[in-house]
Amino acid sequence: MDTRDWRREPEPKYWHLRTLLTEALDTEFSVGEVLPNERALAARYGVARATLRQALEQLELEGRLQRRRGVGTTVAPPRVGVDLSPSQHAWPGRPGDPWTVTAAAPAPPPPAVARLLDLPSGATVEIIHRTLTTHGRPVATEELYVPGAVSPPAPADPAEGPERARRLLRLLQECEPAGQDRTVELGAATAETAHRLDRLPGSPVLLVTTRYLTAGRTAAASVATYRADTCRLTFANQPALTALTG
Fold first, then answer.
1. Could you read off the pLDDT of 112-162 as tens digits, one per residue?
2. How far apart are the first and last CA of the chain?
3. 132 and 37 share a domain?
4. Which of 59, 153, 193, 208 could be joined to 64 by an S-S link, Cβ 3.0–4.6 Å?
5. Which residue range(s) make up the domain with 187?
């Protein structure tokens, strides 16, 4: 058993530098301002450039900095508030819903989602893909899973695409809402979600799983992946999502 007193462990140099840089961002720089180059910052704080890069990478992960090719490192705007309270996070496809559908197609859901929908392993559901953007940049991606009891096939349905997704959302709106439950956890972006969110695979993300209930059963379930560097989740009854348009 490790009996060391972690309170006495020396703080890593890059973490101490990250603290100093955070204070500078709060007092000396404004949103969108370009930071001095690495050589100047390393000289200012008396650290090696490798240590500086570690601190800058940490602040980028935390959403305090943005690195732009051809521009440099700039101070990032505050995180966008995303209100997850039921009054603001209503059923998918409602009027004013800020999510944009991109595609839909039938496929088996992941095992965890199949359990949420009370479906046997290997059962097929409709999977609707949606994105959420702000200022023209994607901040979240979602897979919405709709079981066949809610989404009967239509003879003229296209095989996949936004048109099919919109029809499914209209069918979902016909269900009588009876509540929803939601869980939030920290995760890492898969290769697919990282591509959709313009991030590197393994970047920290916030995973929000929602179950939509109707008449004693689950009408749909969704797994939404939010960029942890640009989003902060709130649970107050306030319209924080109104800024998420694009």
1. 999 999 999 889 999 999 999 877 778 899 999 999 866 665 555 556 678
2. 53
3. no
4. 59
5. 80-243
